[in-house]
DNA sequence: CGATCCCGCCACATT
DNA sequence: AATGTGGCGGGATCG
């Protein structure tokens, strides 16, 4: 067969000369009626066959490698339309002939010669970038395949990507219509818009936040874009989907994936997208199914797409160095701004300029091009799409409906983000030493990584402002953002640092660290920097080496100010912390002893039980309320935080104090809890530090918002003592999702001590993190109970009891996050919640996870165990 | 050894 | 049923 093909290829000679011409010829001419699916095997070589040609062909067949190889190199750079590639071939042939057969084998064409990118170049070379409008160029897959000497399968890879950009459209079986790049800018524009809708929130949020002070991320988008639902843009992107039976269809995947991939670039400020992040984001599957295999597959596809895009000159490969090392990434080098019509588009980068010559604002080509099948449906379906909340999406109507996708996407985004974060975390955890754990911390080298990855990545992560923390790279750090700060500031009056914030979010790694209150002192540290009345103790703690800390922490807890600790310079602390953090991730820096053991078993048990109950509650009735609370509650959380801070600084709230004392009593409390992603739906990881240095945490706060990850941050330690904390964050502003189905992310804190092993993590429903979350000090520690969640009374008690019993200090506050799961099926808010809740509640460790979890990953058990394991390790590790 | 990604099996879709 | 499409992932290559 190959030979046969090759022979065909030979004919290409003529072609080579003028790719363009050929295309034209082929295309329009009546001769080949384009549409017919006819197999053209013949076609390809209409005339040119000369005997010689045959020989050449044969030769080439024999040693295609050689030919290709050399050719390839030359071609390589030229790319684009030039026919050059062909020419060389011809030359090559001659060459080949000589050595030919013998050699052919020995020189197998290196893989590169066969690369999709090269193939794509050849493919593109055959057609004019800007064909005359009048003629239509039709492309016969068979023909092309034969000419290019590849299997048809490969052509599909190329065409699918090109189709996603509307460079070609499918006319009929085996027939594609070549449009060229006339509409490329339009398409890109559409994608950009769509991308903003889909991913923009995240991106913009972060990005803007950094750059602009105000980041309401939701708002902007909305302003420009009426409703996510309405946007037509998507339509085109999704049309494909529609054609197939909706979601289920697998077909569209490559095309859609391609579009999404492009969207990421268009939405990304940096225009650089790392493969892994893209893969994670593009894995729409709900949940965290982060299967490694799945990820790998996704990456493979992305390479395919990237190769084509590279050939189109839209992106180029680059490397971003992140924490762990350099990661493969791609940079958008295509047009950034599009002459578009509406002002909607926001142009993101100044430099950009529309395609060089192309700007035809014609109507969207794609539609036109589209063969018939697809389109109609799409409109209908798409219009309605709404974000997650989707109350209405009638799921029922058709499982497939595209809109679902859209909505789901929204949700899935969050999820994906979470997943991404989670992975990072995981990675980090793996390499505790190396990794970023400290991301928060200003570790010189490492710190970067923390930040960096994200920024480059699709969404720039916001970095914490904290001065001390300031990232070395400055990458992320640039913007301290007010958002959080502001909030904090308002409350605290200290803008810059989030003194209050108890959480740390690692941009790069999607970890959330929670510091339990203990140490408020620590917070203080941050505060101190800010100027608050910092407590030194915090610093001291931070400063204190982990190992020491562990015990100390407990002590500290007991006595807020740890004498020795305080003294250390913040810098040190940071470093320490950093180092610690990493450890913490992997290994809790402070090894807490098995929490269970320490904690009163009874308590722990009870608490655990309660939790479960709690879930249940949430699942059913409570959930909604909880959500509401949260939504309403942000304040509370803030308050809590505030309290937290307050306490931190100096005086622990009474309750806490006593708790802290208790903690003190208890020797070991794990300062941090690492929650594995698996547990949750979402894949977030949380770290809770009981005693942690606040500073880190503070950072987190900033980051969080930036991340916009649907995570909820758990209030600080102070809260820790309290059973549940709700994260205030609400999607509200941005979220297209009105319902707030996700809106509220509830987080619960309870003393971990008993639970620690279990590390209860909950993912909140989509709760998008609102920037607002910023810690506001307001609430009393005691009150924390309000927990948005409905805790079953019992639970609450238990918690309370626990607190008392267990050292609050330890306080491993657990947070629950509700994640909305992007369930495949559209969920109505109502429906969603219950489900979510259920799912949410698994604690990896303690709770055995039920099947549900599993679906997300089979690992859960593993996770749980791992968590525990980590904990244990930590305990040991600490010295 | 990780990054790339070619290759082609095979399921599903379309004729 | 034949043929078109294209998801998918093993495993070969590259760097």
UniProtKB/TrEMBL annotation:
Keywords: Activator, Cell cycle, DNA-binding, Nucleus, Repressor, Transcription, Transcription regulation. It is found in: Nucleus. GO terms for biological process: negative regulation of DNA-templated transcription; positive regulation of macromolecule metabolic process; positive regulation of nucleobase-containing compound metabolic process; sprouting angiogenesis. GO terms for molecular function: DNA-binding transcription factor activity, RNA polymerase II-specific; RNA polymerase II cis-regulatory region sequence-specific DNA binding. Coiled coil: none annotated. GO terms for cellular component: RNA polymerase II transcription regulator complex. Its main location: nucleus. SUPFAM superfamilies: Winged helix' DNA-binding domain. Signal peptide: none annotated. Residues 858-879 have a biased composition (Polar residues). It comes from the Eukaryota. InterPro entries: E2F (IPR015633), E2F_WHTH_DNA-bd_dom (IPR003316), WH-like_DNA-bd_sf (IPR036388), WH_DNA-bd_sf (IPR036390). PANTHER family: TRANSCRIPTION FACTOR E2F, TRANSCRIPTION FACTOR E2F7. Belongs to the E2F/DP family. This is Transcription factor E2F7. The gene is E2f7.
């Amino acid at each position: 067969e190959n030979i046969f093909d090759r022979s065909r290829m030979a004919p290409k000679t003529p072609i080579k000369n003028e790719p363009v011409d050929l295309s034209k010829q082929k295309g329009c001419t009546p001769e080949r009626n384009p549409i017919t699916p006819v197999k053209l095997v013949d076609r390809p070589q209409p005339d040119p066959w000369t005997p010689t040609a045959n020989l050449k062909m044969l030769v080439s067949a024999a040693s295609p490698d050689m030919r290709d190889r050399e050719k390839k190199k030359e071609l390589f750079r030229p790319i684009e339309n030039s026919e050059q590639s062909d020419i060389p071939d011809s030359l090559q042939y001659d060459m080949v002939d000589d050595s030919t057969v013998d050699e052919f084998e020995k020189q197998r064409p290196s893989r590169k010669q066969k690369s999709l990118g090269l193939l794509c170049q050849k493919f593109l070379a055959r057609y004019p970038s800007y064909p005359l409008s009048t003629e239509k160029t039709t492309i016969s897959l068979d023909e092309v395949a034969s000419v290019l000497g590849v299997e048809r399968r490969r052509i599909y890879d190329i065409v699918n990507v090109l189709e996603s950009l509307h460079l070609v459209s499918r006319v009929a079986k085996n027939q594609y219509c070549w449009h060229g790049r006339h509409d490329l800018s339009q398409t890109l524009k559409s994608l950009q818009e769509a991308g903003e809708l889909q991913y923009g929130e995240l991106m913009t949020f972060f990005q803007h936040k950094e750059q602009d002070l105000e980041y309401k991320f939701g708002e902007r988008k909305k302003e420009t874009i009426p409703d996510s639902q309405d946007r037509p843009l998507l339509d085109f992107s999704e049309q494909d989907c529609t054609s197939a039976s909706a979601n289920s269809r697998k077909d569209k995947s490559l095309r859609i994936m391609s579009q999404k991939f492009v969207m990421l670039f268009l939405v990304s400020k940096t225009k650089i997208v790392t493969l892994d992040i893209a893969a994670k984001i593009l894995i729409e599957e709900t949940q965290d199914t982060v299967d490694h295999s799945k990820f790998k597959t996704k990456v493979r596809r992305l390479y395919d797409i990237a190769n084509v895009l590279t050939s189109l000159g839209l992106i180029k490969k680059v490397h971003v160095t992140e924490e762990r090392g350099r990661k493969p990434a791609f940079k958008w080098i295509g047009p950034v701004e599009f002459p578009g019509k509406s002002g909607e588009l926001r142009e993101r980068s100044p430099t950009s300029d529309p395609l060089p010559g192309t700007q035809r604002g014609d109507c969207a080509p794609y539609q036109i091009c589209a063969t018939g099948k697809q389109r109609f449906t799409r409109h209908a379906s798409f219009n309605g799409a709404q974000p997650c909340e989707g109350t209405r999406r009638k799921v029922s109507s058709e499982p497939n409906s595209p809109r679902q996708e859209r909505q789901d996407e929204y949700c899935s985004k969050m999820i994906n983000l979470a997943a991404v974060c989670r992975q990072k975390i995981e990675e980090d955890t793996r390499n505790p030493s190396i990794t970023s754990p400290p991301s928060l911390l200003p570790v010189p080298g490492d710190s970067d990584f923390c930040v960096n990855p994200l920024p480059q990545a699709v969404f720039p992560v916001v970095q914490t402002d904290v001065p001390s923390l300031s990232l070395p790279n400055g990458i992320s750090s640039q913007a301290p953002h007010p958002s959080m700060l502001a909030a904090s500031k308002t409350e605290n009056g200290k803008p810059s640092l989030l003194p209050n914030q108890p959480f740390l979010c690692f941009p790069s790694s999607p970890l959330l660290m929670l510091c339990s209150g203990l140490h408020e002192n620590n917070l203080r540290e941050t505060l101190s920097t800010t100027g608050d009345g910092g407590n030194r103790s915090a610093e001291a703690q931070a400063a204190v080496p982990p190992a020491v800390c562990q015990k100390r922490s407990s002590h500290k807890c007991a006595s807020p100010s740890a004498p020795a600790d305080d003294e250390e310079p913040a810098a040190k602390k940071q470093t320490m912390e950093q180092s610690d953090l990493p450890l913490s991730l992997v290994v809790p820096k402070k090894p807490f002893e098995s929490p269970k053991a320490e904690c009163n078993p009874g308590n722990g048990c009870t608490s655990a039980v309660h939790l479960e109950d709690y879930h249940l509650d949430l699942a059913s009735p409570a959930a909604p309320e909880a959500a509401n609370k949260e939504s309403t509650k942000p304040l509370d959380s803030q308050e809590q935080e505030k309290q937290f801070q307050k306490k931190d600084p100096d005086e622990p709230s009474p309750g806490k104090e006593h708790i802290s004392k208790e903690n003190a009593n208890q020797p070991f409390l794990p300062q941090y809890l690492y929650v594995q992603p698996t547990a949750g739906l979402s894949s977030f990881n949380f770290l809770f530090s009981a005693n942690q240095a606040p500073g880190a945490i503070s950072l987190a706060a900033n980051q969080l918002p930036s991340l916009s990850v649907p995570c909820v941050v758990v209030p600080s330690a102070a809260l820790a003592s309290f059973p549940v904390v709700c994260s205030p964050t609400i999607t509200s502003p941005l979220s297209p999702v009105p319902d707030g189905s996700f809106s509220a992310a509830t987080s619960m804190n309870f003393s971990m001590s008993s639970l620690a092993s279990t590390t209860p993590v909950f993912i909140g429903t989509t709760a998008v993190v609102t920037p607002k979350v910023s810690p506001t000090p307001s609430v009393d520690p005691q009150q924390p109970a309000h927990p948005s969640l409905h805790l079953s009374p019992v639970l609450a008690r238990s918690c309370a009891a626990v607190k008392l019993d267990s050292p609050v200090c330890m306080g491993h506050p657990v947070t629950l996050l509700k994640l909305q799961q992007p369930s495949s099926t559209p969920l109505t808010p109502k429906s969603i919640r219950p489900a979510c809740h259920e799912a949410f509640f698994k604690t990896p460790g303690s709770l055995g996870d039920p099947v549900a979890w599993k679906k997300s990953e089979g690992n859960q058990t593993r996770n749980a165990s791992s968590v525990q394991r980590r904990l244990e390790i930590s305990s040991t590790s600490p010295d």
